[in-house]
From TrEMBL:
Subcellular location: Cytoplasm
One GO cellular component term noted in the UniProt record for this chain: cytoplasm
EC id: 2.7.4.25
UniProt-recorded name of the protein: Cytidylate kinase
Catalytic reaction(s) noted: dCMP + ATP = dCDP + ADP; CMP + ATP = CDP + ADP
Lineage: Bacteria, Bacillati, Actinomycetota, Actinomycetes, Propionibacteriales
GO MF term set: ATP binding; CMP kinase activity; dCMP kinase activity
Gene: cmk
């Protein structure tokens, strides 16, 4: 068994996966892998390519050829596509709207899952990995597996507060509720798999959720050989 500690966190949009994972990784001085950013980067590359999404084989081939560099410093995560820094661009609403089309292509998923596993294997001490299928597919043997959930209303309100005037109410609802519906066709993040700890953040603020995860990690560290 590897000495690297792997923490896997899944959950729906706006449940707090990124904020919690970054804070936990920073707390322990570990790496942070945002797998959603990898799908977003590929969605950006697809939009740049102009390929019709119906040509799934061509989209998957394009994705396979992309040089993706993912910076795993939780204080400043970055992502580059063939040398272009897309860290900020992939957060634009146009990417949130389109990303599920690309992440629904199984060949794209297979390619990114292999890259995610390689990034996990390259982590020096520990890594917190977040997404939709980390506890079930990417790292089912992680040392700690968490499903972070929150009431849909709380998640929409969080996203609305975050985006402010950059998005209308309808756009926010689309980014959270419609996207979850589309994403749940290819990944399972609404129910916990066996051995996965559920944390409901609906009524807890971010520091409280982070403290709960840190406690769980501490327990794992005591038991890990
Ligand atoms: N427990 C919490 N209480 C209140 N707000 C929170 C909590 N956790 C996260 N937030 C806020 O909610 C928003 C969404 O959080 P975050 O981006 O971490 O969610 P996410 O699950 O990674 O979403 P997505 O999958 O859509 O990227 C952010 O503005 C964040 O600061
Ligand atoms: N492991 C993952 C991570 C993400 N996705 C897809 C689904 C999301 O709509 C999109 C962007 O993720 P976010 O940045 O919002 O967390 O990527 C996935 O299918 N599997």
């Amino acid at each position: 068994m590897s000495n690297v500690v792997v923490v896997a966190i899944d959950g729906p949009s706006g449940s707090g996966k990124s904020s919690t994972s970054r804070a936990v990784a920073e707390h322990f001085g570990w790496a942070y892998l945002d797998t959603g950013a990898m799908y977003r980067a590929m969605a950006w590359a697809w939009l740049e390519s102009g390929l019709p999404i119906e040509q799934a084989d061509a989209v998957a081939a394009m994705v396979r050829n992309v040089r993706l560099e993912v910076g795993t410093d939780p204080a400043a995560p970055t992502i580059h596509v063939d040398g272009t820094d897309v860290t900020a661009t992939i957060r634009e609403p146009r990417i949130s709207t389109e990303v599920s089309k690309v992440s629904s292509i199984q060949q794209v998923r297979d390619d990114l899952i292999a890259r995610q596993r390689a990034a996990i294997a390259a982590a020096p001490d520990g890594i917190v990995v977040e997404g939709r299928d980390i506890t079930t597919v990417v790292a089912p043997d992680a040392d700690l597996r968490i499903l972070l959930v929150a009431d849909p209303r709380a998640r929409v309100a969080r996203r609305a507060a975050e985006l402010g005037e950059a998005a209308t109410g309808a756009e926010v609802t689309d980014q959270v509720i419609r996207r979850d519906r589309d994403d749940s066709k290819v990944t399972t993040f609404t129910e916990a798999a066996e051995g996965v700890t559920v944390i409901d953040s609906t009524h807890d603020d971010l520091p409280t959720v982070v403290a709960r995860v840190v406690d769980l990690v501490e327990q794992v560290l005591v038991e890990k050989p």
